[in-house]
Amino acid sequence: xxxxxxxxxxxxxxxxxxxxxxxxxxxxxxxxxxxxxxxxxxxxxxxxxxxxxxxxxxxxxxxxxxxxxxxxxxxxxxx
Length: 79
Fold this sequence. Notes:
- The protein is mainly α.
- It is about 75% helix and about 0% strand.
- The chain is elongated and about 50 Å long.
- It starts with 6 loop residues before the first helix and ends with a helix.
């Protein structure tokens, strides 16, 4: 049986490093993809578009980590 995930911790981990909250939730592949996308966004800052895409991805990562942790907990409790 899977332990419950803390949605707040998942969001904070993603705030510290985009993708880390997904990895905490057990979505290793998704977390690695988020990390790679943020690295690309870092490079895109030289073209200025990264100043738009990096914060958007960062916010999306936090929201996604929080919602997935909540969904996992609901599924766990309904069993």
